[in-house]
Amino acid sequence: MSRVLFNTLSSLLFLLFAFPATAESVRGGDLVVEAPWARASIGTSRPSAAYITIRNEGSSADVLTGIETEISSMPEVHEIKTNDNVSTMSPAGPVEIPAKDAVKLAPGGLHIMLIGLQRALVEGERFPMTLIFEKAGRVNVSVPIYSLGASGPEE
Ligand SMILES: [Cu+2]
């Protein structure tokens, strides 16, 4: 290997390790699914929640129709609605991702409810999750688990 090439490769490796990507993202068709995370759970008796941002770079809307993950026997997209200071949570049904727009699943709004946990969510671990879209099809993400009190992806 030439010395120049070696130096170039070394620099590239250095950049890779010195600046790891903070926001994880996965592309599926026109969609970019980014910054997935979930909250740690206490055991498995109560559901936990996962959050993610879905960006649509295409010129037509797509629809999130379902979630699959081995960690939950019934993963469901929920929405929180607040009326007269009372917040209620209910299944959101199919979620439209408008063209050239983004939908953010975040605490206080849309979220993926992980009902029927198959094992406890432990801070620092990960689990696989599949988002199913009408057009983009199946998009697989690896979801990092943050602390019980986390409010968003770490910067
Ligand atoms: Cu919920």
TrEMBL record:
Organism of origin: Thalassospira profundimaris
Annotated keywords: Signal
Name used for this protein in its record: Copper chaperone PCu(A)C
Pfam families: PCuAC
Gene3D superfamilies: PCu(A)C copper chaperone (2.60.40.1890)
InterPro entries associated with the record: LpqE-like, Lxx211020-like, PCuAC_sf
PANTHER family: BLR7088 PROTEIN, COPPER CHAPERONE PCU(A)C
Signal sequence bounds: 1-23
